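Following up on my earlier thread - several people asked me to post the actual chain instead of describing it. Fair enough. Here it is, all 220 residues.
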Amino acid sequence: MAFSTQAQTDTGKAFFKALKEEVLILTENGLLRNRKDTKQFVKAFMKQNTKSSYESSFSVAVNSSLAYEIGVIRSGGNVFSVMLIKQQGIASTQQVEFLVIYEKDSIQDVSAAIDKRRAKWMELCNAHQASTLVTELYTQEAYYYNRGRVLQGPAALSAEYSYMNDSNYSLKLTPRHVAFVSENIAYEIGKCSGSYPLPYMLLWEKQADGNWQIKMDSNY
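Reply from S.P.:
Thanks for posting it. Predicted structure:
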């Protein structure tokens, strides 16, 4: 499985041209699902950031046709952190199917707090308590993205993760790259091992009570 931390740069215009027509875009205001909303978002963003550049800071191949990636868009004094899912090895220039974009703010290293929550995730998973895992570790509006499907909310995620209740199921999460976006947001791409041996992607969000929870989760 190939990991890359070599910086790759592009213009902001070229970056947004790589979005698929049916791309999903997750912002601090929620998930944009239909083409009209995503096109309006991109148009407004490009209008406000006419001279921008994109730099990839980390990527990992999920399989021969898909990759997870974290990077930044710079525009003057503004910096936006992005995390994305894109197709690779295809002729089309439209490759990005899922995009997370948040403005980068004051940065704090919250590794210890997130490490603690990730450990709790593994503890509950390996104790076969899927519903408790979702209740404790995911936000109420959390999204799960898998092979084009979007699930949202505790009930849907608990049902999706019911396979964790199998007594033979076990999983370990090993982070490969964590990007601190702001005091309340962090991106994570890592590698699963155990019953599921592929990469994963998480968006962590700090809650009002100080606990970190998962707002978006993706695997294939």
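The longest helix spans residues 111-126. That should answer part of your original question.
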